[in-house]
Amino acid sequence: KDIGRLIVQGTDQHGIVASISALLSEAGANIVSLDQHSSDPEGGQFFQRTVFSLPHLPARLEELREKLDARLTGELGLSWQLVEARQRKRVAVFVSKSDHCLLDLLWRQRRGELPMDIVMVVSNHPDLAKDVRPFGIPYFHVPASGGKVEAERRHLELLAGNVDLVVLARYMQIITEDFLEAVGVPVINIHHSFLPAFIGAGPYQKAKDRGVKLIGATAHYVTKDLDEGPIIEQDAIRVSHRDSAQDLARSGADVERRVLSRAVAAHCEDRILREGNTTVVF
Amino acid sequence: KDIGRLIVQGTDQHGIVASISALLSEAGANIVSLDQHSSDPEGGQFFQRTVFSLPHLPARLEELREKLDARLTGELGLSWQLVEARQRKRVAVFVSKSDHCLLDLLWRQRRGELPMDIVMVVSNHPDLAKDVRPFGIPYFHVPASGGKVEAERRHLELLAGNVDLVVLARYMQIITEDFLEAVGVPVINIHHSFLPAFIGAGPYQKAKDRGVKLIGATAHYVTKDLDEGPIIEQDAIRVSHRDSAQDLARSGADVERRVLSRAVAAHCEDRILREGNTTVVF
Amino acid sequence: KDIGRLIVQGTDQHGIVASISALLSEAGANIVSLDQHSSDPEGGQFFQRTVFSLPHLPARLEELREKLDARLTGELGLSWQLVEARQRKRVAVFVSKSDHCLLDLLWRQRRGELPMDIVMVVSNHPDLAKDVRPFGIPYFHVPASGGKVEAERRHLELLAGNVDLVVLARYMQIITEDFLEAVGVPVINIHHSFLPAFIGAGPYQKAKDRGVKLIGATAHYVTKDLDEGPIIEQDAIRVSHRDSAQDLARSGADVERRVLSRAVAAHCEDRILREGNTTVVF
Amino acid sequence: KDIGRLIVQGTDQHGIVASISALLSEAGANIVSLDQHSSDPEGGQFFQRTVFSLPHLPARLEELREKLDARLTGELGLSWQLVEARQRKRVAVFVSKSDHCLLDLLWRQRRGELPMDIVMVVSNHPDLAKDVRPFGIPYFHVPASGGKVEAERRHLELLAGNVDLVVLARYMQIITEDFLEAVGVPVINIHHSFLPAFIGAGPYQKAKDRGVKLIGATAHYVTKDLDEGPIIEQDAIRVSHRDSAQDLARSGADVERRVLSRAVAAHCEDRILREGNTTVVF
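ok -> structure tokens follow
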């Protein structure tokens, strides 16, 4: 408790680290861990994540924010974000019929591995309700049959003001650009990946038809370019000719749940800094 | 010594394994290892690799081939290949300026890890001659400046009858369909791979720009569709935002040499069976 | 359906493969996949796993067993096992308080990834009953407080005739040699592993104190030498100085569940052949 | 050029980061990357690695060192080290007869992947001289036949004042505690690792006899407890029953060269901070 995280990024310039750490030090904070990265020795982009302890943090947040605003925004033109570590992210998980990613998130949260609260599960199918209910989490079934406009309207009603993150855990519906803008919080997606890529329907059969030996998964933030958003986490697993297309899909599911859980954990610990279409994951 | 390898493939039907093993048994051979795979329980493709020991194998090859021809080709309509394990594949390695894949092949061969003889190294650049000569292997510099037709004519002159395999170890020239047909031996290539794919020039920079966390390499047989041939081996390595595009290329080189050497070893041990655009690697 | 698996092992000699495949062929079976391994080209140990399809298999098992007995046991002195693939293994899972391995087995079975039936969960603690009951599987709480002799007597009552495999899924009680002999079915265990080993209590703290960068897990058959039995499956995961001893234990749990599930799957598909203190996993 | 690295460690206390970054900032330096770690939120050990650019760095080193001495040593009681990135470490590589680790180091250095100069190779055997000479590096053959005392006396003569690091690249002689004290520079060693451990002679055969599925390698600093020193880097590779003990040793060699090269690179980039028997690798 009394642990804060300060995320700063912007155009690099001399003295930023000194300025931030002096400010924290003057406030009486002790830096617990600090990761800093510049995209170039001179004139690049600056990224910093600082974890600090400060007694009576909740009472002192406002004062700290004012100072940060003056120094970082005002003088240095940087963007920053200050969060209390105890303030867990409120997360909505979207699913369709596949349970592997959802169950891994629910189980890890229960174990205390994911510093977040899953406040709702939303699905276009009723199937997974029975898996979610024992965890005491509300399950909202919003059928796709009423049309995408209507469904997304319902989604926004459910989400508005209630969540800090949306996780698409094998949610098989397209997300519109309108929804992305309206929802106002980051959206993380997971999908299978291959080297090389197999585009379009039936990717596992296509992969099998070319004798693929490695299948993977990619977690990324959703942008208007759908599956082209900045990558958070990736992993891969070995397969062989013994595996049917169905076996490949199962191995894929194993990688997907692992990659998505790691991506969500990194996000909830404020480890991910976005810049353009790339990420810095401290 | 006196170890033989029998590779059989074709349309699956009842009794193939029994037929092959009876034939070998009658000939006095002892089966050392046998890998068999059918693409479907009924009516699929059949693949078998059998390693056996048979005293005085060299003297008995012809007789064995006649029997295999009668039984496998004649009665069962299968294709087969019989090789002596002691008969090492003769290999030509094509390179440009990058040394990582070439050196790994040379080292592993010298260590006795690759059952093959590198009989020549061919390059469109003179740079790597000094690395090859200490291994006692001829280095042929065939400049690209004379035009592709002329260069490939020279290549075919050098290769004709002299090699059982061509390995493109980061050879940065396009191979024509005419060359592939004329050379008459398998050609293995290595190239970088990403999940997702980054197509065109500067793939490492593109990968960096999207925050890629995993880069890989794929070894495959070259077909007329260039980089679309059947995959032999793949692997991947983790990277992070700390890696520059140049660092990514270095990590890529590490994976490439490892993947290519494994693919070449599998080929030289007759472990790879091709079918359509896929492979079975026993 | 109508898929059988024939496992054969013993002292290698000429003609075994031919003999087996002729026998299956004469019976009208079609070999779907065959893996064979000899520990030496001459005079080693022989291992073979054959999967075949044979119409009306259940009705023909007895006849087949008689033939195998005559040919393999009688003439060749080999041991063998013939199983129907549709005959799922009946499994008892033993747990204490950790849920990660148990839940992974339950999920995968429900998904259809593990060809087995979990017929009971046995624990020295009541804690995990609530996780097991929704799966419709009986949970037996056998407290350790009554003494080991009494507890193992209860275990044997529960297991006798009811199970084909016992899986110790982070069961933190010592298994006695008497129990192992009495239970009469294989017992699979999972435990953490390190390179190098950290023996005794608090292994994760010891690993942290030496700056370990890789932690792993090993699944093995339990023998009277406890954790020294033949290894089935292993894997490892990267860690760093950022990880506390508790984080290491969490990463260890991730590897453990993955490794145990793969080991159990391999066992239930009759892929594992034991010989002395080693395994052949086809 | 003009890139410096400042390594600081000691007992954690409030304001260290601020103090260091203020000092660098006042000196006109721009922080390029900063990694900081505390072993505990309060009262633990403090570790920081800062990379900075400072125009005319060589001319300003002395002044900077004076300031660091006053502030870090004097006021805060911390230990620190300031190095110019352009100042490459001078390295002696010790080998016996195995070439895999040596060749990987030589090749990576030539490619520019390792910021160091290999100033000599020392061996108790003459065998590898021919591999080293083409790289223009002196090879000193110090036979073990003259006794350990005499050999180590020769080693110290060769090394005194000439090297910043000794790398044991599969050097099969015991290093005495006297040598370690006299040599006065860090010594890195590589050895095979297994989960679980197989102690004593013939580890690969022992591993095979227990059906091991994973073999690894560990790079560590040498301390008087020989192979018990702080771990720098580890990795592992999958093996199977198909691999003979000799194959396992070959796979082990592949992991060893990879792990040792990564460990040496990390050391030469001043990424490794030691504390007790553990390491922080930034």
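The first helix of chain B runs from residue 16 to 26.
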